[in-house]
Amino acid sequence: MVTLNPRLSVTHNGHNTWKLYISNVEPKDSGTYMCQINTDPMMSQMGHLSVVIPPDIADDDGSEASAPEGGSVALRCTATGVPAPTISWKRNEGRNIVFRDEDSKENKVVYSYVGSTLVLKGLRREDMGTYLCIAANGIPPTKSRRYEVTVLFPPVIRVASPVVLRATDMQVTLQCYVEASPRALTTWQKGKSQSGGKLLNSSKYIISEEVVSEYGIRMNLTITRLKKMDFGEYTCAAINGYGKAEGTINLKETPQKTTTTTTTTTTTTTTTTTPRPTSTTTRPPKKHLKKQPDRTNHNALDADLRQAELNNALNFYNINTYGANNSHNEYAQRTERQKVRPSGPPRHFVVYNRSPFTTPSLTIFITYCAIHIVI
Fold it and tell me: Per the domain annotation, does 3 fall within a domain?
């Protein structure tokens, strides 16, 4: 071995193999090595050593950058390694990187960007957050570094519910959502900000805040056991070096429910109708003449004689019942128009009265008269 380096050593297996060992390899150990055998002629074999180094990111670059809304920032990342590492940028939580021009007009949206310098123009508050510089050259481990970007703007307040209704003796929580960068100083006041007093944490008022984003917080004011004097306007305020903002919430008492009792009186009227008695002087009941079969063998009478006999019997009935000039002779006239068989033995006629007001004696009388005429 030509060189005198304690980190280098050679071993021989006693036959035909020599090996070179380098301990604690350094970058300067890279190069070409030759194994030579002093024979005649001389024989040699060449070998090349490359020392690789995993990536590393220099700390001389700043890890924070800030600018007002609409401004620009430049993030620089310097990395070393063998071979030379590739530098890429990504946002934390998988969000996209947005490139804009000076007028904040969006040009390009990417998931990752390759390059040692990341320039963001036309900043908006949603660009605020963590950006990662990642250096990789295929030699593990991969190196990364965090850069914080802050976008500065005055506070903006949004009220969750401008009007809140609650009843007395209940608890209520009033909320305001604040966006500000840098983080704003927040306060609660009863009434207008010019006249109201600042509220502090106590058994009556419980004040708290929740962080919802890089630049947003939620202000909470809890009021316990509401009284009449607690109702009114409450003001939430936020202030930072770029401005001030306020929001107003009107706490109102819930109207009491009124119960109205209504009494309804129902009057029932019952009408009893007495049926009118049936007059016996109304239209006479219809009478039907039923032909009775003749069981005698008398000779047939002339048709005209039988017709005259029937007419006389009916006229006699009408005169005795209704009078000579009574107009209720409709039935007799209708019967008179009925045809009588032109031949056959004498017929006996019985008057059937369907009205309950006709007496049996009248029926017998009419039958008798009819028979008397025939004889």
Answer: no
